């Protein structure tokens, strides 16, 4: 059901002529929900011309009678009927009615596309404690699904050397030989994550595109000819390395392999001249990965929360 617009507000699709002013609006107004933030005009053009959406059906621009922008969102459907919305609202507005209207437009659009009996899911990301965003999500019917901790460690001295289980050897990822096996190992090691959605090889390859761009920072722990664990890392900037994926397959857990892969990654960063490592971890990890990282000297510096709202198209009675 579409929520009503505030009095004297009106809505229309975006047109190509709106893009310069819309880019400015996105820079300077409240982001109630952040999906894929678009900050530059060229990126906005690319998003709107990607073929995944049509301006007429999938964009909503709310203005006042004089044409001043009050709110904006767009609809982009991801795999498995998932939508991660971005909703912007003018800062001067006294309530969140424009944002609530735009959320309802997105929901109606998803319901139009959903096959009967299939669920669609809205996911929203909130960094830290943001009462305005939390209030908006509560009014929109979202519930908090999972919390991630951002952790880091600073290297004031050379990191401690890893201690490998007796049967384990480690080597760098070889993109010509290891792609399929690494994909399978990463997917298996992620099965115990409560939020994990299975990925195709193509989707996984896109998900880990940053670490795979530099195989010298991607490490595979082998037991014989089987991958027991992986660490896929990349350089964020001249000081910071990112541990993007670290996983150990079930049969090799509780042997110290996760800690060894973590410390091996720390050493690789330090040898590159990096002086900090960061990662994100489920704050309620079923495998207690957060406790492993704390034992290695990492500290929580921030948290972000994922909120969820599930919709289902119901048959007409």
UniProtKB/TrEMBL annotation:
One of its GO terms (molecular function) is acyltransferase activity, transferring groups other than amino-acyl groups. Transmembrane segments: none annotated. The keyword Disulfide bond does not apply. It comes from the Bacteria. Gene3D superfamilies: 3.40.630.30. PANTHER family: AMINOALKYLPHOSPHONATE N-ACETYLTRANSFERASE-RELATED-RELATED. This is N-acetyltransferase domain-containing protein. The lineage of its organism: Bacteria, Bacillati, Chloroflexota, Ktedonobacteria, Ktedonobacterales.
